[in-house]
Model the fold of this input.
Amino acid sequence: MNAYAEAMKHSGNALHHPDTRAVHAGRHELTQLGVHALPIDLSTTYPVAELDGAPEQLEAWATGGQPDGCAIYARLHNPTVGRFEQALAELEHAEAAVAFASGMAAFTALLLSLPGDRRHIVAVRPLYGGTDHVLSSGLLGCTVTWAEPDGVAEALQPDTGLVVVETPQNPTVGLVDIAAVAAQCGTVPLLVDSTFATPVVQTPIRHGATYVLHSATKFLGGHGDAMGGIIACDEEHARGLRAVRVATGGLLHPLGAYHLHRGLATLPVRIERMQSSAMILARRLLEHELVERVYHPSLPECDPQGLVGTQMYGPGSMLAFDIVGGYDAARLLLGATQLLTHAVSLGSTDTLIQHPASLTHRVVEATSRDACGVHDRLVRISVGLEHPDDLWADLEQALSAASLHSVSATHVHTHG
Done:
């Protein structure tokens, strides 16, 4: 048992409210270090006090272990990164977490860690476009079978090494019953991409997931200024991920780890405010004549299984809607927003709006996009911390602009 695990065994932090854990997680050694703010270790190498024992220490790090003592080289371990990993593991009720330079680096490492005879993946669409692309392209030597959530068991093969789901799904905000999928997996590990939810909204390991993936760039950092990815899991699976990270050099930079760890402290308050505003905007969008359908888990039709309140602690702050007029209307809407920023990514303090079929999911083949609801009329919003009335005023004027332009264009085409 490493020093962190020993400290957590006696800390009682697991009994604290998640809001309290978010503030204190990963900070157990700060008093011992004599500091209050999180320290940043930018060292690329570490002095080796004695050669005796150093080879064994190096071997332990390189094979995914977490030995006490000298880190030897920054590609093997960094204490700033380690504190962020400890914090996220605690929030996810996991034994360990392994951080990488990006969410895609984390997912890639997981695929590379699979045994050579277990390279078949079962996945449920929609997923983030980059994840979909890596699986569909076979770039990393994997094959994939796409399945519906209730068809995972039938899709399993003798060489299946992983089942992949995302919930809430990107970009449709659809919900997947994690426990129901886990029950179908048998001994096959289940990865849940919980980026949209964060551990404030959902803790997938408690529902049967083996791995929990976050693009930490998003809500965990929360300010759009740090990139990273992290996977929470048990210690056995973490060793495999660390070994791949050492071999490939995918370690998260310590400055990024500092920013991401700092972001965890305010995560609960940010999510509470953001999802409250998202609920308001979802209801108002429902009433707009240019909106065909709204997707947000707070709406009963978007949560037919009743997962909010059971699997999820809240509906989250991501929403999407279908705009009447398809791509042309979406283009006009995005060009007319003034407060909402037209940009990819999500989870930042400011509200972002984008057209998934053109941007985040452009790499997904068109018929596959359409089949899972990522069509040209879909617009995605990551709700930020602005006042909901200001956000709605901007959305309303942008929708009006899109509507007026659409009517004008139709009139010119008809009578010109």
Notes: The first helix runs from residue 3 to 11. Confidence is low (pLDDT under 50) at residues 1-12, 408-416. DSSP finds 16 helices and twelve strands in the chain. Residues 108 and 188 are 18 Å apart (CA to CA).
